[in-house]
Design brief:
Strand order of the largest sheet: 8-7-16-17-18-15-19
Distance between the termini: 34 Å
Protein name: 4,4'-diaponeurosporene oxygenase
Catalytic activity: all-trans-4,4'-diaponeurosporene + 2 AH2 + 2 O2 = 4,4'-diaponeurosporenal + 2 A + 3 H2O
Family: Belongs to the carotenoid/retinoid oxidoreductase family. CrtP subfamily.
Keywords: Carotenoid biosynthesis, Oxidoreductase
Cofactor: FAD
C-alpha cells in the first residue's frame, strides 16, 4: 500500500539519508512548517559517522575532527533552541599533535608565538614566514566563507557575475596547495603539516587548489573541538531536535527508486513501502544516487558516461583498537607523517593501491574524556588514507595483512603492543561503499584534485527532475562535516523560498 510521507498539509519532503546534511535539511524544513520524513538504510542516523562499542571501549567510526562549531550552532538556533541543551563541545588546545619522520613534533596551537617556536626547532626560515602564511590563510577563509560556503550555486547569475569572478581570481583556483605552501615554507615537515588539509576534502596536496590553505586558519585560530560523549553526540543531538520538530525517521529501510512523473519528483519507493512527496532531498553521494535510484533515461544530464568521468575522493582504512594501556605521546588528535609524503598520494590516486607508508591519524577521545575506555585503557581510532574502490586493490584479500602492517608501523612509532589489544576491528573502503552507498567507497564524494571538481561540483538541484535536490560532500559547497551541514541548511531554505515565490 502507498503511504504518504506525513499527510497534514501539502508541503511534504522525503529525505534520503540521515547524515549531517539530511539532518540539517530536516530540522530547517520542519522549523519552516514542512512535514518531513527521513529514510535511512542503516539502523541508526549518522551516515558515515556511527557510534561503535566493542566491549568496554567506545568509538566514533567516521568524522572525528570537528571545526567551525558556529555552523552546527546555527542549525539549533534557527530552530529556536540552544545547541548546548542538546550537545556540548569543548575547545582542544593544542589542536593536533603532528609527529614527523625525523622525530620532530609540532603541536598545532592558536598561539602563534608557540607555533613559531616549535617550527624554528627545525627551520628558522619557516618560522619567520608563519605569520604571513596564517594571514593569507585567514584571507582565503574570509573570501571562501563570503562567496562560496554561504550560498548555493544553482542559477547562472550565482556563478557568472563580476563579484564571483573577482573572488575566484583572489583565491587563485589554478594554483595548487603545495605550490602556495612553497611560497612560505621550504622544510618538508611544514609542507606536510599544512598540505594535509587537502585530505580533509579527500584530495592530494599536490593537485588540490590552494584555497584549502584556509583550513590552517580554521583549525589553529577558529579551533578544533571535542564533543562530550563522542562525536556521535552531534548526530544524537540533531536527531533529537529533528524528532521534536515532528520529523519522522524510518531507519533500516532502503530507498530503491526515486519516483517521477513527467520529469517531476513524486516520491520514493523503498524496500518496504512507497512515500509521496513534493520534494525529495538526497543526502548521499550524488553519483550513487543517480546510478542506483534513477533510470538512466530520466537523467540525461548525469548519464553513466558522465558519472565515470568524475574522480572520486580518497577513502580510508580504519582500525578500532581498545587496549589496557596509556600512551604519553598521544593527544586527542595525533598525526604521524611518513618520510615520503608525495609517494602516499601517488599510491592512492595513480596506482590505486593502499600506500606503502601512509600517514597515520589517531583519534584518542579518551585523552579528553573519561568513560570512553576502561580505567588505564585507550580507545584508538586509527585512520590511513586509502584509494577508492577499484579492481587494482582487493580489500577482502588484503585488509588483515594491511592492518598488521600498520600495527607494526605504529609500534615503531612508539604506539606499542596493539597486537595484544583487548578489542580490535577494521573497516575498509569496500565496507564504506556497502554501508553508505558512497560512490566507489569514497569518503568525500568527488575529489578536489582539479579546479573544475572543486569550484563547479554537481548542482544541489537536479537538472533533469523538478523537485529533486542534493546535499552532501559530492555537491556544493563540498566535503567536510561542517560544510555538509551548511549545505543541508542552504538547500532547505532555498526549497522553502521557491515555494513562496
Amino acid at each position: 500500500m502507498e503511504r504518504e510521507a506525513l499527510s497534514l498539509n501539502n508541503q511534504k519532503a522525503v529525505i534520503i539519508g540521515a547524515g549531517f546534511g539530511g539532518l540539517s535539511s530536516a530540522i530547517r524544513l520542519a522549523t519552516l512548517g514542512w512535514e518531513v520524513t527521513i529514510i535511512e538504510r542503516q539502523q541508526h542516523a549518522g551516515g558515515k559517522l556511527q557510534r561503535i562499542q566493542l566491549g568496554d571501549y567506545h568509538f566514533d567510526r567516521g568524522p572525528s575532527t570537528i571545526t567551525m562549531p558556529h555552523v552546527f550552532r546555527e542549525v539549533f538556533e534557527l530552530a529556536g533552541v540552544q545547541m548546548e541543551d542538546y550537545v556540548k563541545m569543548y575547545d582542544l588546545e593544542p589542536r593536533t599533535r603532528n609527529v614527523f619522520a625525523d622525530g620532530t613534533t609540532v603541536d598545532l596551537s592558536s598561539d602563534r608565538a608557540f607555533m613559531k617556536e616549535q617550527i624554528a626547532a627545525y627551520s628558522g626560515k619557516d618560522a619567520q614566514n608563519y605569520d604571513a602564511f596564517m594571514d593569507e590563510s585567514k584571507a582565503l577563509y574570509r573570501e571562501a566563507n563570503q562567496k562560496f560556503l554561504g550560498q548555493l550555486m544553482i542559477r547562472p547569475q550565482d556563478k557568472y557575475n563580476v563579484s564571483m569572478l573577482k573572488s575566484l581570481l583572489r583565491v587563485r583556483p589554478v594554483t595548487k596547495l603545495n605550490t602556495l605552501l612553497q611560497r612560505y615554507f621550504t622544510h618538508p615537515n611544514t609542507l606536510q603539516m599544512f598540505g594535509r588539509y587537502a585530505t580533509y576534502v579527500g584530495s592530494s596536496p599536490y593537485e588540490a587548489p590552494s584555497i584549502f590553505a584556509m583550513l590552517a586558519h580554521v583549525e589553529a585560530e577558529l579551533g578544533v573541538y571535542g564533543v562530550e560523549g563522542g562525536t556521535y553526540s552531534l548526530v544524537s543531538g540533531m536527531e533529537k531536535l529533528a524528532r521534536e520538530k515532528g520529523v519522522i525517521f524510518r531507519t533500516g529501510e532502503e530507498v530503491k527508486r526515486i519516483r517521477t512523473h513527467r520529469n517531476k519528483v513524486t516520491g520514493v519507493e523503498t524496500d518496504r513501502d512507497e512515500y509521496t512527496a513534493d520534494v525529495v532531498i538526497a543526502n548521499g553521494d550524488v553519483l550513487s544516487i543517480h546510478q542506483l535510484l534513477i533510470p538512466e533515461s530520466e537523467r540525461p544530464s548525469m548519464d553513466n558516461r558522465k558519472i565515470e568521468q568524475y574522480e572520486p575522493s580518497l577513502s580510508g582504512f580504519v582500525t578500532l583498537a581498545g587496549i589496557q594501556k596509556k600512551y604519553d605521546k598521544l593527544l586527542h588528535h595525533t598525526v604521524f607523517f611518513p618520510d615520503n609524503y608525495q609517494a602516499e598520494f601517488t599510491d592512492i590516486f595513480n596506482k590505486k593501491r593502499a600506500p606503502e607508508d601512509p600517514t597515520l591519524y589517531l583519534c584518542y577521545s579518551g585523552y579528553s574524556e573519561q568513560g570512553m575506555a576502561p580505567e588505564g585503557g585507550s580507545n584508538l581510532f586509527i585512520l590511513a588514507n586509502a584509494p577508492y574502490v577499484s579492481k587494482e586493490w582487493n580489500w577482502e584479500l588484503e585488509s588483515s595483512a594491511y592492518q598488521n602492517k600498520l600495527i607494526r608501523r605504529l609500534a615503531e612509532l612508539g604506539v606499542t603492543d596493539l597486537e595484544r589489544a583487548d578489542v580490535m576491528s577494521h573497516y575498509t573502503p569496500e565496507d564504506i561503499q556497502r554501508d553508505t552507498l558512497a560512490y566507489r567507497g569514497s569518503i568525500y564524494g568527488i575529489s578536489s584534485n582539479n579546479p573544475k571538481q572543486t569550484f563547479t561540483r554537481p548542482s544541489n538541484r537536479s537538472k533533469d527532475i523538478e523537485g529533486l535536490w542534493f546535499v552532501g560532500g559530492t555537491t556544493h559547497p563540498g566535503g567536510g562535516t561542517p560544510i555538509v551541514t551548511r549545505s543541508g541548511r542552504l538547500v532547505a531554505e532555498e526549497i522553502a523560498r521557491q515555494e513562496h515565490t
